[in-house]
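Lab manual, section 2.4: Encoding a predicted structure.

Procedure: take the sequence of the chain (119 residues), apply the prediction step described in section 2.3, and record the output as structure tokens. A sample record is shown.
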Amino acid sequence: MEIWINPACSKCRGAMELLDAEGADYTVRRYLEDVPSPDEIRAVLDRLGLEPWDIARTQEAEAKELGLKEWPREAGSRERWISALAGHPKLIQRPIITTDDGTAVVARTDEAVRDAMKR
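Recorded output:
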């Protein structure tokens, strides 16, 4: 498993504490420093079964500057959203856990972290 985190995020810290308490084997990716490429974002979206606007943090200051809330949420705009997430990684929802079975979860709750550990 790999977990994409922002160390300043309480949800990320909580997810890692739960993984540690359960003895899970995982690697940490500090995605603000090790920024995912557009291809990596596409791959994670496929694993999540979501679209880029589904994992965008639209309340962030950067999102407001870009006017992200007003962007179309349709197939024709998908690449624009992916480029925005790659160019502004702070906009990516966190934490994201990629699992050994090829899926992924946005692990904002203990239940989602436990679900990831079962995969």
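Check your result against the sample. DSSP finds five helices and four strands in the chain.
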